[in-house]
Amino acid sequence: MGGGNGKAIYIDTESTFRPERIKPIAERFGLDPVAALDNILVARAFTHEHQAHLLSQVAAKMAEEPFSLLVIDSITALFRVDFSGRGELAERQQKLAKMLSQLIKIAEEFNVAVYITNQVVADPGGASMFIADPKKPVGGNILAHASTTRLSLRKGRGDQRICKIYDSPSLPESECVFSISEQGIVDARE
């Protein structure tokens, strides 16, 4: 079981997973909503240590049964809470690097796609270089180098959203416009 028929694991660090959203999305694609939800394992992480422990449990679960997708939303949220200020930056980055290494091993060993979300912060230096939206991703180069393809999501006009391929070894830089509806991701409305 893989691809669209595979199971998914969702590690939620910000309490944002909404199971009620699965029903209309599943129905849109002609799937049984109960079966779709049964194929999504959700775990709530409360600290960066708990998040690391959950990854160990994820690897054990993947050894027992096949999965196709691992989502961590958001990879950096708990690190930002648990490590504050520049004095703890080195330790935070070291522990983040260890977790990213563990994710790469899981992806390769179990042949699963790993999708991580991240947070952005204002970049005060970016405004001086005339950048329209001076934000930068949290995690720095450690997160950038551990990621194969990086996407940047932002709001467009109205209910439109813009997804930009920010960095990829196999895809050119490009953008697409989409909307999020009750049934999930749909073509953007003009």
Identify the notable features of this structure and list them briefly.
alpha/beta, four-stranded parallel β-sheet, 7 helices, globular
What does it look like?
Helix 3 packs parallel to helix 5 (89-110) and helix 5 packs parallel to helix 7. The mean pLDDT is 89. This protein has seven helices and ten strands. The protein is 36% helix and 26% strand. It is globular. By secondary structure, the chain is of the alpha/beta class. The longest helix is centred in the middle third of the chain and has 22 residues, at 89-110. A hairpin with a 4-residue loop joins strand 7 and strand 8 (160-167). A four-stranded parallel beta sheet has the order 2-1-3-4. The chain has helices spanning 22-28, 33-38, 48-64, 77-82, 89-110, 124-127, 140-146; strands at residues 8-12, 40-44, 69-73, 113-116, 120-122, 135-137, 150-155, 160-167, 175-181, 184-187.
Shape: globular
How far apart are the termini?
A: 38 Å
The count of helical stretches stands at: 7
Rg on CA atoms, Å: 18 Å
Q: How much helical structure, as a percent, in the residues? A: 25-40%
How are the strands ordered across the major sheet?
A: 2-1-3-4
- Contiguous runs where pLDDT drops below 50 for at least 5 residues: none
User: How big a fraction of the residues is strand?
Assistant: 25-35%
Sheet with most strands: 4 strands, parallel
Mean pLDDT: 89
The topology string of helices and strands comes to EHHEHEHHEEHEHEEEE
Q: Count the strands?
A: 10
Helix vs. strand class: alpha/beta
